[in-house]
Design a protein that fits this description.
The protein is mainly α. It has helices at about 1-15, 40-50, 55-70, 75-85, 90-105, 105-120, 125-135, 140-155. The radius of gyration is 29 Å and the shape is globular. The N and C termini lie far apart (about 110 Å).
Length: about 170
């Protein structure tokens, strides 16, 4: 029995020396030369595209930014705004639903969601959100501009799609 234990012990030592229990080269690989993945690159590029009026590109880049950080409020706001500008209100609604519990009672949320409703023609809902934003900060130029835009939008009549066919 002692010889058996001695043989097993010696086999264990030989296995350790031959690399049977050593870490493989992949697990001890030096990763110091790897570049850091910056997750805000897509967000920065998306903001630039949005400011330049390239809403299709900004929509795609904000969507990619959301792949990296799915609950980032800035990326969600940009995604929703880009979707609004493209008339993709179904996609914007998904983003606004995700945003509501995160930043639901902020000036930015009410301004953006109000503007989304203005684009859809829901002027009453847009007014409610613009007024909430304005009450939060009357000196905010976006809130004041949105209310002015709403006032100007009311002056234009809504027509049915076929009203001007006879002209």
């Amino acid at each position: 029995m002692k010889k058996f234990l001695l043989v097993v012990g010696l086999l264990g030592l030989v296995a350790c020396e031959n690399g049977a229990f050593n870490d493989g080269s992949g697990s001890v690989m030096d990763t110091a030369n790897r570049s850091y993945y910056r997750d805000d690159d897509k967000l920065v590029a998306a903001k630039v595209q949005f400011k330049e009026g390239n809403f299709g590109r900004s929509y795609t880049l904000f969507d990619k930014a959301l792949d990296v950080t799915p609950n980032d409020p800035e990326a969600l706001l940009g995604y929703a705004a880009s979707a609004d500008m493209l008339g993709r209100f179904d996609k914007a609604d998904v983003a606004y639903r995700k945003l509501r519990p995160i930043i639901g009672n902020t000036l930015q949320y009410h301004n953006n969601y109000g503007y989304s409703n203005l684009l859809r023609g829901n002027l009453t809902v847009a007014r409610q959100h613009f007024l909430i934003a304005y009450e939060m900060d009357p000196s905010n130029e976006f809130a004041a501009n949105n209310l002015e835009l709403l006032r100007n939008s009311i002056n234009y009549p809504r027509r049915a799609p076929g009203d001007l066919n006879g002209i």
